[in-house]
Specification:
Layout lengths: L1 E5 L8 H4 L4 H4 L2 E4 L1 H4 L17 E3 L3 H10 L4 E5 L5 H12 L4 E5 L7 H5 L1 H20 L6 E4 L6 H7 L3 E4 L17 E5 L18 H18 L4 E5 L17 E2 L3 H7 L2 E4 L5 H6 L3 E6 L5 H14 L3 E5 L2 E5 L3 H14 L7 H9 L3
Parallel strand pairs: 1-2, 1-4, 2-3, 4-5, 5-6, 6-7, 8-9, 8-11, 9-10, 11-12, 12-13
Antiparallel strand pairs: 13-14
Helix pairs in contact: 7-8
């Protein structure tokens, strides 16, 4: 019997981390133990709970212990364990009763490369990694596996739970498809709702929405021709209520599924959006667009992210493009870091487990 115990409410959001629909055939029970492992009650914001006969909600540590004792369990998968006294008590109980357990720990996309490349961060990781290896030799209490999309950012958990083996899995929000249709040849522009953003309401400077989207479309039409793209689609901002819809005439607008379109694109354009870090993970060519009619504060952010990520900038003014190129060497270092510190295009939890446990 395989059991998945979640320290977070069973949400559709986490379905990829569980293994998609396979979770409901692979796991005999999926337990929502939020109240056991979270010491503070969390406000229910998302109302997308999954309803299924295999899902069981347990509210106290004693209930969870009793459930574990009454069932013949092959492996317990503890999803996103919290650093609480109940977590430690439960892990100790599993160890003393010789019940196999594994840890599932995911980290979101790192938006600031300086956190990855900072020498102190790398040194701390190296020290903690050495401590883990020593602990793994001498300590008998071990998790079977620790599943993570980033060993670098989960080193603290790796040291604490002392797994026999660390296995890489996709982040829970990673798109399911792994094959890119090479014939699509599309570009995407990550829109940031610049003329309508709430921050602009409190600024003395104003951005004319009609002029902004007119300039944007002229630039994108030029880029479509320059890079011989079939089309460039505009990925609209999550806060958009489609105010921009009537101002965009020559490009398709997409609401939602941004990660999927970035993954399937040939090139990504944007200003300074955090979504550009997703493009970095997928090793996409990125160009930052500076439109002089934007707010000066916003233009400054374009140059800040360009310096951090070493991404080229193109200034589009009076129908002319001025290129500001960054170091190709630093670009490649940052791309290597993103690619290796996060698992991209690897397996979900179930497939990863089956490969090592069942040799599938």
């Amino acid at each position: 019997m395989n059991i998945l115990i979640s320290t977070l409410p069973i949400r559709k959001k986490f379905i990829n981390a569980y293994g998609g629909e396979k979770a409901f055939t692979f796991f005999d029970y999926i337990i929502d133990a939020t109240n056991v492992f979270l010491e503070n009650t969390i406000e229910e914001i998302f109302l997308d709970e999954i309803k299924d006969e295999k899902i069981k909600k347990i509210d106290t540590l004693n209930e969870l212990v009793n459930f574990t004792q009454k069932n013949n369990i092959d492996m317990i998968f503890l999803f996103h364990p919290r650093d609480t006294s109940n977590t430690d008590k439960y892990i100790n109980f599993l160890y003393k009763n010789d019940i196999k357990y594994s840890i599932v720990s995911n980290k979101g996309t790192e938006r600031n490369p300086s956190r990855i490349l900072h020498p102190l961060k790398i040194i701390k990781f190296g020290i903690k990694y050495c401590q883990y290896k020593i602990k793994n030799i001498f300590s008998k209490q071990k998790a079977e596996y620790l599943f993570t999309n980033s060993s670098f950012f989960n080193m603290k958990s790796i040291y604490k739970y002392n797994p026999k083996k660390v296995l890489k899995i996709n982040h829970l929000n990673t798109v399911e498809s792994k094959e890119v249709d090479k014939t699509s040849n599309i570009g995407v522009f990550v829109d940031q709702f610049i003329p309508f953003h709430t921050e602009g309401k409190f600024s003395k400077e104003k951005v004319n929405a009609r002029e902004y989207y007119s300039q944007l479309e002229k630039y994108l039409l030029y880029m479509k021709k320059e890079y011989k793209l079939n089309e460039i689609v505009i990925l609209c901002h999550p806060n958009s209520s489609k105010e921009e819809q009537n101002l965009i005439h020559y490009h398709k607008t997409i609401y939602g599924n941004s990660e999927k379109f970035i993954y399937e694109s040939s090139i990504v354009f944007g200003h300074f959006s955090n979504a550009l870090a997703i493009a970095l993970q997928f090793n996409k060519k990125i160009i930052l667009l500076d439109l002089p009619l934007m707010l000066s504060k916003r233009r400054k952010e374009i140059y800040e992210i360009s310096n951090k990520l070493q991404i080229d900038i193109e200034v589009f003014e009076n129908n002319e493009i001025k290129c500001i190129n960054k170091s190709k060497i630093l670009q490649n270092i940052i791309r290597y870091a993103y690619k290796n510190y996060f698992a991209i295009g690897s397996d979900d939890l179930i497939d990863s487990y089956k490969k090592v446990e069942y040799k599938v």
